[in-house]
Design goal:
Layout (H helix, E strand, L loop, with lengths): L12 H14 L4 H13 L4 H7 L3 E6 L7 H10 L2 E4 L5 H4 L9 H12 L3 E9 L5 H4 L3 H18 L6 E6 L22 H12 L4 E6 L7 H16 L5 E4 L2 E2 L9 H9 L4 E9 L3 H17 L3 E6 L25 H10 L17 E10 L2 E10 L7 E6 L5 E6 L1 E3 L5 E6 L11 E9 L8 E4 L1
Parallel strand pairs: 1-2, 1-9, 2-3, 3-4, 4-5, 5-6, 6-8, 7-8, 8-9
Antiparallel strand pairs: 10-11, 11-16, 12-15, 12-17, 13-16, 14-15
Helix pairs in contact: 1-2, 1-3, 8-9, 11-12, 12-13
Bound molecules: (3S,4R)-3-hydroxy-2-oxopiperidin-4-yl beta-D-xylopyranoside.
């Protein structure tokens, strides 16, 4: 491709701007009319990509090459998304099935489709313990190290200038509390394999942003702390790293963490971009919609969160289809999660279809809990009823043995038992349907927290 190898961080909103300019020019004497007609879309897009672009972000999806002949799939892809990640086609087993023989056909089809439709590409993934071809699984030591360097060089050079960001290394840290590296054949080549991978990728494609990507790093925990320490060390020593990807595969066992935004922010504060790279949230209806909206709001609140990618288009396209974790149903219809995502991108509150304001006056409250052994964080969302609020109080009964450690955005009446959480000065006044959140950390277990909300 003819692009010079410059970093591809032109704002995604350039596309929107260009379209606007063309319409205004082409309409000639109707310029005034066109301006009025277009004004609403400048503040509220009607597709995920357009709305994200208005917030300076991209909105992407994983794409499978074998679905590019499915008209429904392609229709949604090219209407809604402006970033594409090949779901499997750039992995080591796909691109180098036997040593030094490279096959780019399927990945090329995805890149060509993206380019034809004005979408950018996230490359995924250059070095990973999983989806290695058999010949790599059988290598070790210096032979494996050289094979890795050769692989990264060849693949990243081949796509030089066409990739917005590469997941250079994927999933290199261990789950659980060890805070260490995952054991793998790559790790056994020496602890420096990750920085060697990043330096190799930079040399091969100096224009691509280079990311470290992982799962179970979405909140602050031993694993994300270990990644954080590595990124901070890389920045201190000048190892080239530009971004950290948070896969964000969520379900009931692994919910959106209460400190998701704070965790994104602490990485951003190290001087890297952060990206949500493989978002899917199992569930349905309002609960799923609310979780998607939370993820979007977290990204929008972190200025270095440059975009969100969902891991597939329709539920039936998902690698975990039974959890119906995506934004479109199997027939390609928009789900409540889609509407909540779009509304969150447009800066609105959660749409009325997913959390109707309580009828009449009053307010309602909903609690999300993130628990660990011996403690929990609860996030409480207050929604004003049709009359709005001048102030509110949420009653919650903590189970025996549970006691507050810390509360934010509300004032508790006591440390345990039946607690009334009153608004603080800046969040008491809500217009009809408006929401606000407060939270607290407590010792003990959460049990089932059933909130009641009273408005004044
Ligand atoms: C998954 C794909 O979606 C599946 O089609 C494939 O069978 C296995 O890999 N983390 C990653 C992704 O980084 O590459 C994985 O994708 C999902 C988990």
């Amino acid at each position: 491709m003819s692009n010079p190898p410059v970093r591809q961080d032109r704002p995604a909103r350039a596309r929107t701007g260009r379209r606007l300019a063309l319409v205004l020019t082409a309409t000639g004497v109707l310029v005034a009319g066109a301006t009025i007609a277009l004004a609403p879309s400048a503040s509220a897009g009607t597709t995920l990509a357009a709305s994200a672009a208005e917030r300076g972000r991209y909105f992407g999806t994983a794409v499978a090459a074998n679905k590019l002949s499915d008209a429904t799939y392609v229709g949604i892809l090219n209407r809604e998304f402006d970033m594409v990640t090949p779901e499997n086609e750039m992995k080591w087993d796909a691109t180098e099935p036997s040593q030094n023989t490279f096959t780019f056909g399927n990945a090329d089809r995805i890149v060509a489709s993206a380019q034809a439709n004005g979408q950018r590409v996230r490359g995924h993934a250059l070095a990973w313990h999983s989806q290695q071809p058999g010949w790599v699984q059988n290598l070790s030591g210096s032979a494996l190290r050289s094979a890795m360097v050769n692989h990264i060089t060849r693949v990243a050079s081949y796509y030089r200038g066409k990739i917005y960001a590469w997941d250079v290394v994927n999933e290199a840290f261990a789950d659980g509390g060890s805070g260490g590296r995952r054991d793998s054949n790559l790790q056994r080549t020496g602890n420096d394999w990750i920085e060697v991978a990043f330096r190799t990728a930079r040399a091969a494609d100096p224009g691509a942003k280079l990311c470290y990507n992982d799962y179970n790093t979405d909140g602050q925990n031993a694993k994300s702390n270990a990644v954080y320490a590595m990124v901070s060390d890389f920045k201190a020593r000048g190892v080239p790293i530009d971004c950290v990807g948070f896969q964000s595969h969520f379900n009931a066992q692994s919910p959106v963490p209460a400190d998701y935004q704070a965790n994104l922010q602490r990485f951003a504060d190290l001087g890297v971009d952060v990206q949500i790279t493989e978002l899917d949230i199992e569930g349905s209806g309002t609960a799923q919609a609310d979780n998607y909206a939370r993820v979007v709001r977290a990204c929008l609140a972190v200025s270095r969160c440059t975009g969100i990618t969902v891991w597939g288009i329709r539920d039936s396209d998902s690698w975990r289809a039974s959890g119906t974790p995506l934004l479109f149903d199997a027939a390609g219809n928009k789900k409540p999660a889609y509407t909540a995502t779009l509304n969150a991108l447009n800066g609105g509150s959660t749409p009325p279809t997913t959390t109707p304001p309580p009828a009449g006056g009053g307010c309602s409250a909903a609690v999300t809990v993130n628990a660990w052994n011996g403690g929990f964080v609860a996030t409480v969302r207050v929604t004003a009823g049709a009359g709005g609020t001048d102030g509110w109080a949420v009653g919650l009964t903590l189970p025996a043995g549970a006691a507050l450690v810390n509360t934010w955005n509300a004032t508790p009446s006591g440390p345990s038992g039946a607690v009334q959480f009153r608004n603080v000065a800046y969040n008491g006044r809500l217009t009809a349907g408006q929401t606000t959140e407060f939270g607290f950390q407590a010792n003990g277990s959460a049990g089932t927290l059933t909130p009641s909300c009273t408005a004044s």
